Amino acid sequence: MSDTNTVTCSFxxxxxxxxxxxxxxxxxxxxxxxxxxxxxxxxxxxxxVPNSETLEALSEVKRMKEDPSLGKSYTDIDKMMExxxx
Length: 86
What we know:
The chain is built from 4 helices and no strands. With 86 residues, it is mostly helical. The mean pLDDT is 90.
């Protein structure tokens, strides 16, 4: 009986590349399958739609680029850091 929520992946790659990769993963206490699954999960997590706070920040930057008078600009990094740390 097969589980409809799983998929079997099969692909071909260079044996030396696989062996080198596997030796690194195994040294760290992992396994190739588990590492590839974690990698896929990270790709999905990192590519998710930004949250509302991030979308607002992006919108604010866009408005500031269109109208530089909305933000403060600096020519002196020390002054900028001083203001940021206040």
